[in-house]
Amino acid sequence: MTLPSLSRIAVLASGRGSNLQCLLDGIAAGTLPAQIAGVFSDRPDAAALLKVAPAQRWACTPNQFADRAAFDRALADAVAASQPDWIVCAGYMRILGTAFVERFHGRLVNIHPSLLPRHKGLHTHARALEAGDTEHGASVHFVVPELDAGSVIAQAPVPVQAGDSADTLAQRVLQVEHPLLLATVRLLVSGRIAERQGQVLLDGQPLFKPLHLDSAGTLSRLS
Ligand code: GAR
Questions:
Q1: Which mutation among 52, 111, 136 tests ligand 1's pocket best, with the greatest number of atoms within 8 A of CB?
Q2: pLDDT interval class at 5 (50, 70, 90)
Q3: Quick one: fold of 7-220?
Q4: What's the pLDDT tens digit per position in 94-137?
Q5: Contact 59/74 with Cβ under 8 angstroms?
Q6: Which of 159, 177, 205, 216 is spaced 20 to 30 A from 45 at the CA atom?
Q7: Which ligand 1 atom sits nearest the alpha carbon of residue 15?
């Protein structure tokens, strides 16, 4: 009997890699039936790279290339060579060009530290505080060429507390990012999630609101 091969996940990361670590922990614990195809970075000094074996690392600085498109092409070729089923941006802080996004359309996702569509882009925690939001959180969404605008698969809310600074809020959001990413990637590799013409499908049915992470780390539909 041949066992089905494990889904291959390419991870793009620019920094410390705690979200990558949670995927690695899930794989090690047997709760995420997948393997990391490679870790890809625009920052050769990214701590995330050190979490996998040297043969699984790829890193180049964009200024080694003639232009943005050339860097993106090299990155896309390296990602494709790792034969991923899914590509997960986990703290990848460089905007991906349209050619990259279209090449991996439908299997490229990103974790973003806000309840999208609120607070696309950078400094999301400070902006949530400035806006007086009472709730903040994290989202996992399909990537489209427009920044942080792709359809959202799942979200985890975090209450904003009196006296929160951007740092304290960021720490609490990070604590929900990890179970959110793990649970969402588990759904992706199980083949239950797809994207069709900007619509997320769960088990073939349209998902009109993002899945919601509860305190037990389970994703469910919001009614
Ligand atoms: C995470 O908070 C992630 O949501 C955010 O960067 C951090 C990376 O942490 N991503 C973005 O802001 C993307 N726009 P990590 O390196 O410890 O996973």
A1: 111
A2: confident
A3: Rossmann fold (3.40.50)
A4: 999 999 999 999 999 999 999 999 999 999 999 999 999 999 99
A5: no
A6: 177
A7: 16
